[in-house]
Amino acid sequence: MSYKILIADDEAEIRGLIKLYLENEDYKVLEAGNGLEALECFEKNKPDMCILDIMMPGADGYTVLKKIRETSNIPVIILSAKDEDAEKILGLNLGADDYIAKPFNPLEIAARVGSQMRRFYKLGAGEKKSQQLSFEDLVLDVDGCALKKGGEKIELTTVEYKIMELFMSHPGKVFTKQQIYEYAWGEDFIVADNNIMVSISKLRTKLSEDASEYIKTLRGLGYKLG
Question: What whole-number distance in Å separates Cα of residue 52 and Cα of residue 61?
């Protein structure tokens, strides 16, 4: 199967460079030169992954990302000339799975795309395990990569799904930040406190108005479900 990846960037040279490397990995590449084209292409072609530049005419990358997250939890990588922590956190808050600052090494993009695709389609949503995980009124359908609370679906990003899968597979077990990061992001843990804290915070907001109802923080140790 050839996965479809949408690249949205107003610079044709950047799109062409990324396309060259991704096609070399046997991905089918779709292109959009602005945010409106990206949304149209997303609706029409249903790509398996998106790479979005932040600064685009028509609609910026954050706007496109928010629209995508209304209906889909496919992997999304944000590209930006801005390398500020605030920009990264905003992207993660809106549902991005990864963030790469320009200028970039195209080999790194290809590697990160591969990592996201493996995690989502082979370890996550794409692998059918015929299994449901439950905790109190939460049910995680591993077949459909969907979380429900009291029968109502809660939309999750790829990273949020992996974190809930980890927690719900081992309710009551304490996981360190390193364990959570390596499972959810599929990469070696270096320093990623912000990424983990933002994702846990977003999950808590989605699960309950009471931040500590499901996911508990154990200072100096990590996090657990229940």
Answer: 6
